[in-house]
């Protein structure tokens, strides 16, 4: 008998493949669950249902379809009770007291305190009910369920009609995720039923999202959604990196084809055009992938098999598997197919078997990059590009995951491409190579050879700097040699140039590979895709959707509701304005990037318009436009297209950012069989901060119209009101341009003819304003050139004080603009126009706008770009996330000339080291003089110079800060803390809201604090002088020793102990369990050089390690006295003399709490010293009273408090604790020291536990109680026994803290400021002035104990001369 042949077993699916499969079959809407999270949660795969249970489900399904009316309830109970395991005792009646759709029951689960909590809402609908279809008069069932989830803070819902089972996930401020399981497919696709039973099993749905101690997420279903949302940023980062590599591959292929054509292919194509063309191809592909998944393109076989990008990838993958990569690399059939599809999308296809409407738009315009049609890109390259767009293959992934574009937000796609804006292309005449490392640089091969010839260690050091790779990576790469097959790859990458291959071989291990795994070698004549800028360095960061939506909502809500927030109305009484009024609103983002804020504004305003239509009746023209389909989705889409066409505007200085913003809005407003929304008139390229804002500036040919009328009489006439030919020309052009642009906005886009008509009108408008743009450029060029104007006789203003600089800059500017005015006037006058003079003027203006930059600034003249808006009172709202550039980096990033222009024109002459966000904020006021603005800014906007330049001037100009979040961590990859600020002309009854927890306050100050009863700033108090000192500034790492080095020096010569001391810095103070110094320092004090030399070894160390460094310093005293500390703090030394211990706190920390330390140490400048051993001082400094004051008067660094003694301590009105009260501080110190020692943690980690709302350990609870007792003692010392401190865990600008109630914090600040002002007045009346003691250089005295002070004014004000 012949042996039985066993059929080969199909390879078993991995868990990741299993999850990817059922997700593909489910095709959920919104950001559902990710494969990564599912694989981590279910590493063994989905739960398995028994064959018996599956059989029962099969039989029950067959039966219920025959008699749904009679059997539906039994069928539903089978699924809920037996498949999912939802016990009836955990199903509770919901609250039905309000209107709207209610769940049939709520599924309960155990809560943190033992009581049951709602975990999921369940809706049981009639058999034939629609789950996802909305109507004009009501949202769909899943939308209503999502709204209830958000309202009740229950993140999950299950909505079913018996056949369809929709799992809904929705949280406040987040998107809705919906996965609809079809029971008819459960038996056919077993994975779908398993996934349904796994996700909705009672044991997963009913448990809390986090473990009982709150330390980590649980395995609950709600937690899986939360983890997916948290990982979304990582997913987009990975996809963004793959897209970058895809663009790099396409550029590399273009360069190869150009080299084969001996440079003829790209001879007339500029470098930037190559970059833009390649990036546009990728943008087109992503758009098509998104549109195909949304079923917005044809779904018939002809399109799918012969045009679809998604199917093209699958076909190429099959060819790769069948024929191998060599065959695929020889063919070039996919590229012309893509080009044909691009052309079909732009121009449309009319064929008996296929119809694609003409979508138009610049994205698919084949005329923009005609040279792309001359390429013969191989199928292998097309496949690798599509693979990068469709399959996630990040590091650490065992299995590639297919990407669902349906699950990506429009903002995610914008984020993916925004990272590419810092790249461009570069044509090179010599060979280059691409290296490994964080920076992945492209460098000339010659440069590598030169650096390698210097020496191995020097080469390694150079590579560390250039690549950002680790030393280990580079050492491994430098030691690697290519194998024979790798040498062949080298030769192929080098265009079969043996010499070039041989030159690159020594660097084999340092070369990175492209998507084809080929080494990145760029022969001479190549085009490189390389990083040419750093948007993060210039402060540009992608804004997450939730944050953009928050800013937009609170900016627009006061404008769209009446009554509404501007009237102080309660939320349930808000009434949206009529749709016609809403469609007149004008909203702009002056630094739009990929358009996240514009998309949010489009959504928000469209939803309000639909709300108005549903209340007032849908207009007939709207019904006609949606072909009678009055579903809510169709109405929303139509409203979004109307809003995009006439309500939202944006500007960015990067031309490809403008294209990205268009892409984002096109994706958001894409309608089947409708052209792209026309956006060219609304999204413009230019520098938002540099340019003319008003028509008056243009008419006066000056940034200051009043001064311009005096300087440029030819433009405005010698007498007020006198007309000139130039004035007439300006009026005529602006009127005609405004008319054309209003027509563009008003006309709907229903077919390609509408798009073409709008394009022609915009072209006409731009031609009308061409010469006026030149005139406006000249006005700005003169302002930019004023800083470096060389012909002034008196240049003293350049180095003078602020007022001198302001006057000097203005004089230089007036001189230049006056010189230009006559030339420009001749060009604008048709009678005197001369083309040669126009050309010469353009060259000069461009030169002035360029300055020392590589390319000229591109001013954005708001009065010319948007005359229909600026000529009608300006915008109604300005939103955005301006670039994060600190004041100290501003000049280096923008240039001195632009910085001076911003100070003079935007900031009104107000100088200061202000961050860029303050200038954007001031510009926003000019753009929307009667409107509202909402921005995200660095948290320094409320601090120091940035506040003085920005928010101080906002309030001085009559604006109101009506809402703010002072500080919160940035949720993205940028390592910053941000503020959210909303300003406008608030209504009389409008409520002021502060913080993430939305506390209602009296008002909001420019410091983004609650407005107190007391106005003004705190004064420095004489009584507090000389009691808080910054530690010593060493200035030279060579002073610092490791403990073993110091002990060895002392052992060799005990005399060295006189100049060697433990060295305490802020890090040691807050991180070590005993807060002790981890290093030592050489301190010669004020010894002369001759005296210092007596300590031979320490002196030799300093001479060798410090002197060369200090000799480079600009300050003479630091160079001359190089063996001494830069700042020795003699006053501090005198104050601590005789003390065995004193108190120290870290200058920058999250705690700002004092520590009791031994005196025989040197304290670093990263600490503040309080020269006292009295625990009354400790109690006061450790109290919430002092902490609240420090937070309000200090500044921050990356979210931590920066403790500046002059700003915080010297203004702090001290209190006497009274006899016997100091023990509370001693007790706290003893317990704290014990807990830190037992846990082996430092102060920062200890207070991290105290501030954690989930930690209930007995020692932590004890410390909280001791802080409460201490705060009561301190409050009583101030006479504030009436205050109910209300201790608890509250959100603060520095995160969650255990502290007093936020409202109590405001009251404490009010009382302290009142006290500060009262004491200051008394000191003035007594003839005391801050700093007098310092000027007299009196010898510091150690402070007396607080209890020893004889107080006045009810024990609140120490007498003259008292220090505490």
Automatic annotation (TrEMBL):
EC number: 2.1.1.72
Coiled-coil regions listed in the entry: 727-775
Residue intervals of the Type II methyltransferase M.TaqI-like domain: 647-943
Domain MmeI-like target recognition span(s) in chain numbering: 1036-1215
GO MF: nucleic acid binding; site-specific DNA-methyltransferase (adenine-specific) activity
Compositionally biased residues, Basic residues: 1331-1342
InterPro entries, A to Z: DNA_methylase_N6_adenine_CS, MethylTrfase_TaqI-like_dom, MmeI_TRD, N4_N6_ade-DNA_methylase, SAM-dependent_MTases_sf
One matching Pfam family: Eco57I
Keywords, in A-Z order: Coiled coil, Methyltransferase, S-adenosyl-L-methionine, Transferase
Keyword presence, Amino-acid biosynthesis: no
Domain of life: Bacteria
Enzymatic reactions: a 2'-deoxyadenosine in DNA + S-adenosyl-L-methionine = an N(6)-methyl-2'-deoxyadenosine in DNA + S-adenosyl-L-homocysteine + H(+)
Name under which the protein is recorded: site-specific DNA-methyltransferase (adenine-specific)
